[in-house]
Design brief:
124 residues, four-stranded antiparallel beta sheet, 3% helix, 48% strand
């Protein structure tokens, strides 16, 4: 089972980046993005569920980030616009093989499979 995250890089504030996550080896109930800044806990960013196509966003990224399923199964992209220096972090995609209730989607403890992370740096 593998989750492959890509697309990170260095961008100026106000710029855009697109992250991709491709899963292989098994089917997940959806894919979720988390991020972790230096010295901080891992936090939820966005999620998409396959069963009802629902999307979820952290308040801090709502209106700026968009998560969408790619044409291929088990793959998503995260379009990040109007980036801010506080978006700087390592971004991880994660998957759960079982369906999660809404309250669990935002909790990293409910995910068994993780990608390797991709670094996003936003300069001011």
């Amino acid at each position: 089972v593998q989750l492959q995250a890509s697309g990170g890089g260095l961008v100026q504030a106000g710029g855009s980046l697109r992250l991709s996550c491709a899963a292989s080896g098994r089917t997940f109930s959806g894919i979720t993005w988390f991020r972790q800044a230096p010295g901080k806990e891992r936090e939820f960013v966005a999620a998409v569920r396959w069963n009802n196509h629902s999307t979820y966003y952290a308040e801090s990224v709502k209106g700026r980030f968009t998560i969408r399923r790619e044409n291929t199964e088990n793959a998503v992209y995260l379009q990040m616009n109007s980036l801010k220096p506080e978006d700087t972090a390592v971004y991880y995609c994660a998957g759960s093989p079982t369906a999660l209730i809404t309250s669990a989607v935002r909790d990293p403890q409910h995910y068994q499979f993780w990608g390797q992370g991709t670094l996003v740096t936003v300069s001011s």
